[in-house]
Structures are given as structure tokens and as C-alpha cells.
Write a structure and sequence with these properties.
Layout (H helix, E strand, L loop, with lengths): L1 E3 L3 H11 L5 H19 L5 E7 L4 E7 L3 E7 L3 H10 L4 E2 L1 E6 L6 E7 L8 E5 L2 E2 L3 H12 L4 E9 L1 H10 L5 E6 L2 E2 L5 E2 L5 H6 L5
Parallel strand pairs: 1-11, 4-5, 4-6, 4-8, 8-10, 9-10, 10-11
Antiparallel strand pairs: 2-3, 6-7, 12-13
Helix pairs in contact: 1-2, 2-3
This protein binds 1-O-pyrophosphono-5-O-phosphono-alpha-D-ribofuranose and uracil.
The site of uracil has 9 residues, from helix 6.
Length: about 210
């Protein structure tokens, strides 16, 4: 279940942040803006329940989200998307999952997991700007499922075909939303054309 999200403003922000000389302050803002623009598409199929409400004039029926929402940024880079989602979903709670891939083997290593108690019934949205091999996202999904999570969506900015294929094979129940589909991975596991190391660019930790 792959869901490309197309919007001219998303394309504009994506073109700006991909540029090598885009400063970290702008990069962070563009990631946040794209994330916010993705929210309507990512949440489009969330179930709602009818509720009786009292307007100032009479009683009527409205629709409210059936499940509590838990946002799950994969540390570090996923934190860059958090504010954009939280702006439109301020009631969402947040689970932090730390996964970093080994730069030589590309194998993801988990180093932190802190989730609220309601993840079993909640609607979960995992956030990470980059889907490269898919290892980090898949590890996060497995961890959440081991803790009972049942309703998981995944949102990223840039997806590589390899990552989409692997995620689909390992977690076919999880819909994947992305703002751009890139061409391939290079030998170091970076997405081409990509944007480089998202975490380093968001947090200004690029090494010389
Ligand atoms: C980056 C990115 C994803 C992962 C994608 O994180 O934010 O989590 O790599 O690669 P994969 O699909 O091959 O697993 P990284 O491990 O560099 O950690 P960071 O966010 O702390 O920089
Ligand atoms: N992680 C990143 O930050 N960028 C890539 O291109 C691949 C993995």
C-alpha cells in the first residue's frame, strides 16, 4: 500500500531542501512544512465515530476520530517531522523510538523505546524523513507490534524503491506515505538523488 502525496507546495519545498547549500535553519523549516502538508493525506482514511453534540442552537451529530493518535518519530531525523504533524494533531501523544543504522553494515540498531500505554488501540503514525533500505522503519514497526500496536501508518519525505519493496514484504499491513519517490540507493546506502543525511542536516551536525 504505497501512497505518493503530490502537491505543488510540497514539490517546491522538496526542491529547496534538497539543495546542497540549503542552511540547516531553512532545511528544518521545509521538513516541518512538508510534514504538515502531508497530514491530510496520511489521515484521510482514519475511522471516525458518530457523536451527539450540542451546538449553541440544537443537538446534532458530528464525527470524531475513533482512535487516539500516537506519533512516533524515529530518532533523530523523525523529530524534524514531529512539529508539522503536531500542529494539526495537537492532541496526539508521542512515542520516541531510537534506531540508528550502522554506517558500514546498514543494519539498524535500536537504542531507545519510550511509548505511551495506549499504543495497542491507538492509531500510530511513524515519522522519518528517509526510507532507504527500509531497515530502520521495519525495525520500528516490529517493535511497536511487539508492544501490541495494531494500526500503523508510516510517513516519510523521500522513499527509495528498495525501501518500499522491503517494507511491503515485511509489513504489508502498513500503508506508506511519501512526498517523493527517488531513483535508487548508492553503495553507501544513501538515497539518490536524495538530500544527504537528514539527521545531520536537520540538527546541523554535518561533519567536515
Ligand atoms: C537515517 C534516517 C532513517 C534511516 C533510513 O537515520 O533518518 O532513520 O537512516 O535508512 P534505512 O531505511 O536504510 O534504515 P540514521 O540511522 O542516519 O540516524 P539519525 O536520524 O540519527 O541520523
Ligand atoms: N539516511 C539518510 O539520512 N539519508 C539517506 O539518503 C539514507 C539514509
Amino acid at each position: 500500500m504505497n501512497h505518493p502525496i503530490q502537491h505543488p507546495v510540497i514539490d517546491d519545498r522538496m526542491a529547496r531542501l534538497r539543495q546542497r547549500d540549503c542552511p540547516s535553519s531553512d532545511f528544518r523549516r521545509f521538513v516541518q512544512e512538508i510534514a504538515q502538508l502531508m497530514v491530510p493525506a496520511v489521515t484521510a482514511n482514519f475511522p471516525t465515530l458518530p457523536v451527539e453534540i450540542e451546538t449553541p442552537l440544537e443537538i446534532t451529530t458530528g464525527q470524531m476520530l475513533a482512535r487516539e493518535i500516537v506519533l512516533v518519530p524515529i530518532l533523530r531525523a523523525g523529530l524534524g517531522m514531529l512539529e508539522g504533524f503536531h500542529r494539526l494533531l495537537p492532541e496526539a501523544s508521542v512515542a520516541h523510538v531510537g534506531v540508528a543504522r550502522n554506517e558500514d553494515t546498514l543494519i539498524p540498531e535500536s537504542y531507545y523505546f519510550n511509548a505511551p500505554a495506549n499504543i495497542q488501540d491507538a492509531q500510530i503514525i511513524i515519522l522519518d524523513p528517509m526510507l532507504a533500505t527500509g531497515g530502520s522503519a521495519s525495525t520500528t514497526m516490529s517493535k511497536l507490534k511487539n508492544h501490541g500496536a495494531q494500526h500503523i501508518h508510516f510517513a516519510c519525505l523521500v522513499a527509495a524503491p528498495e525501501g518500499l519493496k522491503n517494507l511491503h514484504a515485511e509489513h504489508p499491513d502498513v500503508p506508506v506515505y511519501y512526498a517523493a519517490l527517488d531513483t535508487q540507493l548508492n553503495q553507501q546506502g544513501y538515497i539518490l538523488p536524495g538530500l544527504g543525511d537528514a539527521g545531520d542536516r536537520i540538527f546541523g551536525t554535518v561533519r567536515p
